[in-house]
Amino acid sequence: LSVGQEHSVKELLKQKEELTRERDGQAVTIVGLRGDVNDMLEKVRVMDEERLAQEQEVQNLKDLLASKRAESDKEQARKKHMEKELKELKLLLESRQGEIKTRQLMIVQGQERITRLEHQLKEQKSLTEKSLKDYEMLNQRTLKLSQDLEEQINNNTQLLAE
Predict the structure, then answer these.
(1) CB 9 within 8 A of CB 1
(2) Interval 85-125: pLDDT, tens
């Protein structure tokens, strides 16, 4: 080979070695970058899993919140119903208490009337007993006067007959 060709071959070999070193360096860089890409892909996978887990947790919390709201709404409705029922019962109680007061007043008035009527009955019994005594006394007196009259008539009849 000629000196120019040898020199060209040496130059080419030198370039080949430089390119091989550069290729080997780039291969190492590529391996490192592939490792970085794999690490990034793993991080993305982990982050996706965490995101999915967080989305599931958010959904669970939303479901729980909806359940609690429904329970709260149900409790509010029950509370309103109970308050309405309590109000109705209070009104009924007030009405019944009014009826009780009215009836108690009627009982008191009835007892007062009974007391007056018992007093009138006692007075009437007393008057009746007195009237019966007076009647008996008048009856006895009438009987005695009738007997006296008959006796006087007999005496007068005898006197006239004599």
Answers:
(1) yes
(2) 999 999 999 999 999 999 999 999 999 999 999 999 999 99
